[in-house]
Amino acid sequence: MAAGPHTFVVADVFTAESPCSSVEDISPSVCLQTNIALSNSRYLGNQLAIVSVRNNALSKTRKQRIALEFGYVNTVFLHDSPQPGLPRKLEIFSETEERSFSGQAVLGTAHYIFQKLEGEDSISAGDWSDPTAAETQQKKQTPKTICRCTLQTKGGLIQAHYDPARQVAAIEIPHNVHIHARETTKDEVIAVQRQLLPHPEETAKMKGSYPIFSIAPGMTFTLVDFTSCPSLLSRLEPGYAPEPTLDAGWAVRVGEDAPSPFCGCVYFLQLQTDFTEEPYITRLRVRVIAAGLEEAASASGCSALAAYLALQKGGRNSRHAYAIEQGMDVGRTSQLCVEVRLNETGTGVSRVSLSAKATFVMEGKLL
């Protein structure tokens, strides 16, 4: 990208047409703001602002202020690639702190690179890997089509893939999963959602306790299955998650300048499963509530839920796909797909892939 003002775009991510078929189908300064929504329609999904940074001219303090000004769950600061084929650095900020990783932020940034920077010399298909003969031939025939790229986050390198025909991007989610020994009790759930109390016939169908699951150290969710009492899902209100009791060593994120630990609650319904072809796709409806808010689309919460459900099914080297709908209750319907591959024994997670569409909403220049 040529030198010039910092620009931004805003996008809606996880927009409303389901991207799920199989993630395997997708091969493994002045600022411009891009407003992106992870959605197939504008003004749905989860908003993301992407600021293109010129010459490292923004201090960390100013980046934090810009993120606060946008007021989204995440604001990304995207740097130019140091030279063609090398990873682009991106920095992720919430309204209050810098984050080491966010699935929504990285996936939305991947869409921006694939859809908006496609013709630039700094991006090309297959530069970060050893391409096959077929990939080389495809690159010659369609030199401006981006199939994959690598992004450098504070949490490490993330591989991103893109299917131009379906306009779906996919990323690999870093993970180190753990099921905690203690579960969250039914009473602890109702204590943070007291509006459920006037509905004893439905709450009587709730389970006695619910699993506590970490997708990585410091990123933990209570997983509340309302499939047996579905009317309760629509009665939830934005609020706080039950305070989980975690096993030793899982309460704090690791790494230099690690952000504060996060504990949320995923409420969900398991809907029908499509057995047309493998991996079978299970539809889920999800609400993720934490810290007084409800997220329109929580990549971490949905990834945690998918990983946990896959582990419950088991199967050596098995693949499990989930089409997840979220955000209906806050007026920003989102859809994303999570595919989980288990290890050789079927008792651990070897891979978590997140895919979704995104729609660009606005762009401009920071003054």
UniProtKB/TrEMBL annotation:
Gene Ontology cellular component annotations, sorted alphabetically: cytoplasm
Source organism's superkingdom?
Eukaryota
In Gene Ontology terms, what is one molecular function of this protein?
A: isomerase activity
User: What InterPro entries does UniProt report for this protein, alphabetically?
Assistant: Phenazine_PhzF-like
Supply the PANTHER family for this chain. Answer: ANTISENSE-ENHANCING SEQUENCE 1, PHENAZINE BIOSYNTHESIS PROTEIN
Name listed for the protein in its UniProt record: Uncharacterized protein
